[in-house]
Amino acid sequence: MIASEQLVTFMWILLAVYAGVILFFVIRGARKNTNINDYAVGNIGFPSWVVGLSLAASMTSAATFIINPGFIALYGISGVISFGIVLPIAAFISLIVFTKGFVKQGNAVKATTMAQWIGKRYKSKNYAFFFGIIALLLITFIVLINVGLTQVISKSLNADPFYVLLGITTFVFGYMMFGGANSMVYTNTIQAIIMCIVALILIGSGSEYFTGGIQGFFEKLNNIDPNLTKPTNTSSFLFRDYFEIIVTQIVIGVAIVCQPHIITKSLLLKDSSKINTYLFSGISFMIVFFLVVIVGLYARISFPDFIVNGETLRMDEIIPTYVVTKFSVGVGLIIVVGLISAGLSTLESLIQSLSITITSDIINPLFKDKFTESTIGINKVVIIILGLVSFLLSWEQIKNPEVSVAIFAQNGVYAYFAAAFVPVLFGTFLSHVSTRAVFIASITAIVVHFGVYYGRITSYMQEPVNNPGVSAAIGIITSLVVGYIIYKIDLKKVARGHSRLDS
User: Fold this and answer.
1) The dihedral of CA 132, 134, 135, 139: what is its sign?
2) Where are the domains of the chain?
3) Which CATH architecture has domain 5-400?
4) Predicted confidence band at 499 (pLDDT cuts at 50, 70, 90)?
């Protein structure tokens, strides 16, 4: 039992209030849903800065606040450089570049999902269906968030993780059957503000470790393990050299925005001229959120051997345990609510985008649009099935994690956006792109990513647990080269065809 009785009591009260606030906004937003399009992209003209906060809350999740700091606790400064500096900078630049082009194309093709955007952009129903199928890989991300939330809440309530996971799944998937984009922007905005307050508290929580300045802080880490203060950590499987820390994270950071719950957020803007305000609002908050990874260093100094009450902590338990043991009851309650907000904000976005994709881009095409009039009802059934599947997978990850649920999630999510990167890039910035070029590029990305990872190809894939970022980066670069070569070949064919007609 880690949490005090007082914390447990107040935590139950706070969870009840938090749930009530969320349900209020869900009901308010759900009243305005008249069809699947309203559920997907909303019909309320939200201010651009509010949509920006929704973006920040969706793009930074339980991984940013709970899971990634655990990696930093294990592996030190090398992880901070990778997850806290390189990845965010690459992602922010990519977000700015992609969003501006995507909004123009999105408004032009009137898409509500990523698969629809790709299908309409390339005039291919088969390609849209393909992206609907591979979107199922995003279930792995739902699992990551479920596990992160379960660890935080179960530690705060001294409760059995099984029943906590069951409660989270029932509550969140239950209200997402009705809410959709309208309610999600409301809840995401509140969550982003809470997350920002909590991020600042967490970042400042290690101030006592800086009494000897930065050098004194580094000495504390160095005394625990000299690898913790090195820019590369050869004892890890994620941060062994600059290729893993910098090159891989730049590629992943650039491609990471090609996820449906991130890039399609811009389609909520009813006035695309406000895009700069949207981006400024979102990125400003995300800078603070991404810095939370340094809390992993504080946690390592707090329990250098990862033993608490005689038990060795698993990686995904490190930050929840740090929060419960470090702070007073009042501050602890605020932080736990912030960590829950970090998880729920992305979980809501994933459930919303994935359920619509399954309904609109898999089920409707398979049944030749027979259910178009009852699409909202079908979507609710899809969410129930998603909830059941994610519960079973999440419980398996809690019982038998492979170092961390993050590895399981990265494998699936990275495969998805590796496949999406070339079609989104080419579709946004190039003209006269053949479906053949991007379709082959997408398949190449998936085959190379999984081939390198599970085939243990390259020296990076020789550990018991390997880095999915390396295999995904290789897959993305390979697919980009393959896609561009085919694009150029097809352009020449078109040019030759025109010259024959002219002659």
Assistant:
1) positive
2) 5-400
3) Up-down Bundle (1.20)
4) low
